[in-house]
Amino acid sequence: MSERLKAVFQTKPAGVTRLISYIMAGDPTIEVSLRRLRGLADHGVDILELGVPFSDPMADGVVIQAAAERALSAQMTVKKTLELVQEFRKTHNTPLLLMSYLNPLLHYGWDRFVEDAVEAGVDGFILPDLPWREGQGLRTRTEKSVGNKLSFIPMIAQTSREQDIEAVSQVTEGFAYVLSRNGITGGEVEIPDNVSVFIESLRDSLQIPRCVGFGIQKAEQVRALAKICDGVVVGSALVKAFAKLDQEGLEEKDLIEQEKEVFTWLASLKQ
């Protein structure tokens, strides 16, 4: 586990809880993605998730699917994503996780990929289509290749089988990505009582912090979740806000000014 990621959960959050944000690499361009990563870090995001575009994203709703399509149309690749991280690392130290499906990473070549990821400054991965227990072989292979420099972040939902939660309960580093609802990313969601009970129950089951995502977009949601978890993930709402700006055809200087308003809105969620 990287020191950058470890430090996030060793210190008290600035605000009601820790904030994790997601954008798609290369949407709409590499240069804009880099500027937005830097802006998010500068506005107090604790952990960055950077999506690797893929043509068949099983866990993503229409907002992130569209972002992936735009990035792929702009010729974004795994290699370019790593180059983007490397450029970000020249100026910022905020922990950064790649969120990706396995297919593009295996096509790149797994051993080469993890070595290049470490060199670029990646702190770990969220892999929605790799169940935790089934991923043991790949995690072992990664550790043999690069040691424990990369964290694999497990995902847990109410539909997770008991044996899967038991497997995650053995994890001692990183954090658990807990789904606030079942299904795909995006959409407005209130946190039902049964979900809150589930999230809280994981406090006793897991040894690692619990961060909640899927549908988080309101300060009220964040304040409610802050009482029962260790961080929140804002993804689709942020991607949608940036996409709306990109569709307005603004001059670059005006676009940059409008982006600042998005950063301010995001930062306000955890105040």
UniProtKB/TrEMBL annotation:
InterPro entries: Aldolase_TIM, RibuloseP-bd_barrel, Trp_synthase_alpha_AS, Trp_synthase_suA. One of its GO terms (molecular function) is tryptophan synthase activity. Pathway: Amino-acid biosynthesis; L-tryptophan biosynthesis; L-tryptophan from chorismate: step 5/5. Pfam families: Trp_syntA. Keywords: Amino-acid biosynthesis, Aromatic amino acid biosynthesis, Lyase, Tryptophan biosynthesis. The keyword Acetylation does not apply. Its EC number is 4.2.1.20. One of its GO terms (cellular component) is cytosol. SUPFAM superfamilies: Ribulose-phoshate binding barrel. It catalyses: (1S,2R)-1-C-(indol-3-yl)glycerol 3-phosphate + L-serine = D-glyceraldehyde 3-phosphate + L-tryptophan + H2O. The keyword Amino-acid biosynthesis applies. The active site is at residues 49, 60. Tetramer of two alpha and two beta chains. Belongs to the TrpA family. The alpha subunit is responsible for the aldol cleavage of indoleglycerol phosphate to indole and glyceraldehyde 3-phosphate. HAMAP family: Trp_synth_alpha. This is Tryptophan synthase alpha chain. It comes from Desulfosporosinus hippei DSM 8344.
